[in-house]
Amino acid sequence: MISGLIEKELRQHKMLLSCVLLLLAAGLTMILENRLVQTVFGSPFGALRLLLLTMLPLAGLMLSHALVVTEFRNRTQLFLEGLPLPRWRMIAIKYALGLLLMLGTAALTLAMAWQRSRGHDALTPRFTVLIGLRCLIYVWFLWSLCFAHGFMGRYRIFFGTLAIIAILTPMVFGSVNLRELGPFGLVGDRFAYERFVFPSTQLWVSAGYAIFWMAVAGTLGLSRDATIAASLAQRMSLQEKFVVIFSIFTLLLGYITHHQRTEKVVPLHLPGAVEAARGQVTGSAAVDHPTGKEEAVLKSIVERLGYEMAEMGEYLGCRSLPAVFVVHRRDLDAGIIEDGKIEKEQGLMVRANLVKVDREELVRWVVREVLLVKSYGRLNLERHAWVLDGFEQWWLGRHQPVSVEVRRAARSAMPEGFSTRDLERWLTVRRDAGPDGARALARVGLETLEVRYGEPACRKFLAAVLGREIQKDVRACWQDLRTPNALRFSQTVGVELSAFVAEWRETMRAAEARR
Amino acid sequence: MSELWKKELRALLPMVCLIAALQAASFVYALMTGFVDMTEPKEESAEIGILIYRGLLAFLLGSSLLVGESNDGTLRFLHALPISRTRIFLAKIAAGLLVLELDIALDFALGLLTTFAGMQSTSEPISWAAEGVSFCMQSVLAVYLLSIAAVLSFTRRWYPLAAGFVVWGFLWMRITGVAWTGLLDPYELLTDAGEGAGLRFPWRHGATALGVSALCLNVAWGAFQWLGDHAEHAADRLTRGRLSAAARTIGVALLPLVWIGAIIYLFKTADFQTARGGEKSFATKETRRFDAVFREKDRERATKLIAKADEIHDQVTAYLRAEPVPGRIVADLGSRVLAHAAGQTNWTKVRVPLNQDASVEQLGSVLGHETVHVYISQLSAGAMDRNFDSTRFFHEGLATFLEMKFFATPAKARQMRQFAAASVARKNVPVELLMRNELLRRERDANLAYPLGMMFCRALEKVHGEQAAGDLLRVWSRPNLLETLRGPSLWRAAMQACGQDFDRVMAEYDADLDRALVEEAAFVGSIPHLEARLELVGSEIIVHPHYEGEAPGKLVCMLEGNVEPEIVLAQPDGTIHLKRSQYPGNKLRFALGWVMKEFPWPIYDLWREHDLE
User: Which of B393, B404, B429, B597 is nearest to B512 (CA)?
Assistant: First the structure.
């Protein structure tokens, strides 16, 4: 009976089986004859690996389609069930036949690669056994997977895509990297070259997977009188196809979204760095043998920045501020303050020649950039920009009255008929008046706010704009849309923004008149 | 006719729903992962993504647009109606195009929505002309793809095979440089339209695409007229019998073969000769550390090299404080390598072809370089090889640094430093750029990874001592430590993990380059900067380079290619001649350089872009 069944399978699929063999032979010839493949891999075993990774899975899919899918889709398995033969044996014969074919072709291609490797490689017995074992176990796993995959019928593509996502994405399984484990490790980059290390873990894991997929195939093929396999094997309707396409697409997008949102960032530590007593500020000197002066300057700047960050965080009611890393670079000119461009989640890095740099300028730069990093750059949006510009200037001089120079710069920066519209078009103000003028104007505005409505109101408003926690998605946009700065202002200060701008304008005029 | 329209649109309703759902999902993705009211720089792969998405959509839609009725047997019902085949054909094509237009319109609408949301008072106003050109070109693309899909759909079950032939055939022609193939490239229809005075309308590509579409639609119309009982009977007669069944099965088998085989075939460009002559023409020799395989005819030189091999190996392992690899390294001295390389390494196998022009000392230097590659892979447990874009500069840099330190002559080492200085003199190459190989290739030259990587390793050694490189490599072997990181973040994390100071090394790298610029000022000054003028003469583009001073070598031009940059040497008169048919686009991007005999690679100036219209 068994030989009869084998004969039936061979007869039924003889064309396809020959085509599979043809496909593999053609694939092997193409790969072995390809100059670039030969040159890049430098070994026919490298070409063999390519075959194992591309042609053999395709051959497995075609075989499983012929042996499993067509049988169940056309319901011809019902004829076989009329025979005095248990169903498991029918499935086992299909499995064994496919495995034999796959192993046979793999062995043949391995032999061809081995033959061609003479003159290019040192073909030691250990190396030959290693490569043979890798091939054998990988092919066993691959056929088991393809066989089980065949039982998934019309959802094969869906499950296939899921499997590929799972394999390619260590994130899905935490820290497990499937690419390095088991079958993928067996035919990994070192397949053609590893001649000593025995991949015992990978071999055992692959064998385990092979058994697992065998069990899955058996369960699907044998449970509920094989009706599950038969119903899964039916063709998809157009609507179902579209649903599957959409599901795959959303799954992919879902994975990417998850990946982006959970991306891990390595916390940054500067070797031998000086830490501030307050605030998350550290500094290091990227120079050979820093002088005593350099060390002292670094320490004092780190302390100053730490103090400012801690004070600012407290003032704005921030739960946390990004960490600041200060790097002293002897080779930089006095006027240069460089952004170290670390990940936003890591914090802010500033590079400057600390001995030569203007400290006040450095602190101002850090204050601004820290707030920008904290807000993922949202404070640069036009609607918030005037607050940021003003705060940057106001923070350092908050205990002193506005200087005459600043007031003059503010006056010349103030547009005709200054109104809330100018606050909404702040980038134009900045462009027309220059960055310093815009900062001065905004600084005067914040001072007016503090003087007229008191420090608590000013603080509340600044905290509402600069200190709030921002989510890196649409919620931040929604928050700004629902609570524009004008509303934030009236809620925190108790006065309409337009009224305040009028006062701001008057203050400027009065100051000018006094002058 | 309107009823026919409605019927076609009703039939395509699931497709419309799919398109709307996919667009909605993309928009939700955009909302979930960023700020829609902040303009972010467009990703470079965006156009490729659009092309693939539109291509798949058109091929999905086209697969059953014209032949679906015939397959389902509903074409007979349409025959009973007083409508001509041409009308049915037109209704179907128009409905298909409308669906694709809907996708484009949705895409544009969502794009404009985010553009509006992100507009600031200083933003440039939306260039409606540019948007219009872009919309037109996307529509032309839709017509182009759909008409090809429609004509291919008549191949029925061979549809994927035929599509495979078309796609790979086109790519093959593109890569092998078949004349004017560039005009058929759908990607060109998606290039940036520019703005204002710089507004570009790729009319050549648009006209070609529309011409091809018209041709395809004509063929499809003819095939559609022929569809029906007559055609089916003819097809039945053809497909009946064993021979046709065999042909069918072979066709099925060809499907994957075409798709994958073509990929492999496409890259069959390297200069490589398979070893011929059987086993007898080869010999092997074992040393303490190497299993060498070489050609009998090279025995004398191979023996001399092998005699030095263990010493070379031990110098490398001593520097890196590495345990020797288990077993031996295979030194294949008989196989060839890629044209631009002197040697190649794969895990524990090195290939050092015994080039007749090279002395045994030079070959030893190459063997040393490749042995370093072996130990970089070993010490990092292969992690460095997996993240090649971020690590190439270190792979090549460390190998070059140790090659120059131990095996090369001082003159050669100085030349490498001169090369670095001359390249940096054109424009600084910050460490951050070096750590992104693809970006380095696009902005400067990928070969800068050798000299500038060497400078980085010099800086590393100077700051953290001789053990630094080995320590850094060992960090990579820690599982999952650096898996998700790329570029400078990756290197910062790696150096941090072994207690090294990224910023100090970076400062030393910059300072060393500054010193090299001062020390090699005479050499740097002897290499003139290159300017160029372009001229279109008949079917040729002629690049006229000009420079001041004496030419230090031969002129060469690196052009942006489809896969790798293409290199063209200048004619004896100093001009560079290119075939217009190979570069049929609106613009040409290239970099000019000097080929000098003392350097393995040309010294290139910066990339420049010229309009060809």
Answer: B429
